[in-house]
Amino acid sequence: MASKTRAEKMEETREKLIAAGRKAFAEKGFSAASMDELTAEAGLTRGALYHNFGDKQGLMAAVVDQIDTAMAAKAQAAGEKAGGGWKGLMAEGAAYIEMALEPEVQRIVLLDGPAVLGDPSQWPSQNRCLQATIATLRDLAADGRIKAIDIEALARLLNGVALNAALWVAASDNARATLPKAIAAFECLASGVLNTEADAVGEFC
Predict the structure, then answer these.
(1) Whole-angstrom Cα distance, residue 54 to residue 47?
(2) Do the domains 64-192 and 7-54 match in fold?
(3) Residues pairing with 194 in the sheet
(4) CB atoms < 10 A from the CB of 74, how many?
(5) How many C-beta neighbours within 10 Å does residue 109 have?
(6) Cα dist. 193→105, 140, 158, 189, 203 in Å?
(7) Class of domain 64-192 as given by CATH
């Protein structure tokens, strides 16, 4: 068997650290997670963590990016299952909000993430999600299905509503009771951008 290249070894080390960080942050939270314990869990040293991520916050950023990217992919799959278009966009938003019920997502992405990494709208994973929303809205606009509004502004606000709904669910004392209220409000607010003439003939029903 051929020996691994340097790049392959480095990627393997990164993956081990991300997996260990993900486990530690989910179980203990960012503040309580020990760098010595999580590097030992991965069979590595603090030096490996510093070399690959700079510090614990850098590792947190990589963990959040991994989870949030997976969340976006899951939401996109829900949108495709719903048939794409406007219904797909609403399904994506609802699916993203619903993932706030998952303990790992709650603690790492929605509770500790903003506290450690700052404004979620600035995260790379959220920017990728924004670009996908922009593409969908452009298609809808080209078909005359939404009002003549700046697409980027609309995409940022729609994504912001879904994200903040998820943050609310995660921070709620009763997340399951909050979830349907959050999704209903998201869909109600989003419906304001629909072309009323198309909506009147049942194009979105």
Answers:
(1) 9
(2) no
(3) 146
(4) 15
(5) 30
(6) 29, 11, 10, 8, 14
(7) mainly alpha
- In the chain, what is the greatest distance between 2 CA atoms, to the nearest angstrom? 65
| pLDDT higher than threshold 60 for residue 167 | yes
> What was the pLDDT predicted at 201?
37
Q: Residue 143 carries which side chain, given as an amino acid letter?
A: D
Q: In this model, does residue 197 exceed pLDDT 90?
A: no
Which CATH fold would you assign to the domain 7-54? Arc Repressor Mutant, subunit A (1.10.10)
- Say how far apart CA 85 and CA 194 lie, in whole Å: 12
Query: Could you read off the pLDDT of 56-74 as tens digits, one per residue?
Result: 999 999 999 999 999 999 9
* CA distance between the termini of the chain: 58
User: Could you give the CA distance from residue 95 to residue 77 in angstroms, rounded to a whole number?
Assistant: 9
Query: Cα(57)–Cα(30) distance, rounded to whole angstroms?
Result: 9
**pTM of the shown model:** 0.88
Is 85:144 a contact under the CB 8 Å cutoff? no
C-beta of residue 24 within 8 angstroms of C-beta of residue 17: no
Q: What number of CA atoms fall less than 13 Å from residue 89's CA on the CB side?
A: 27
Report domain extents, the chain.
Answer: 7-54, 64-192
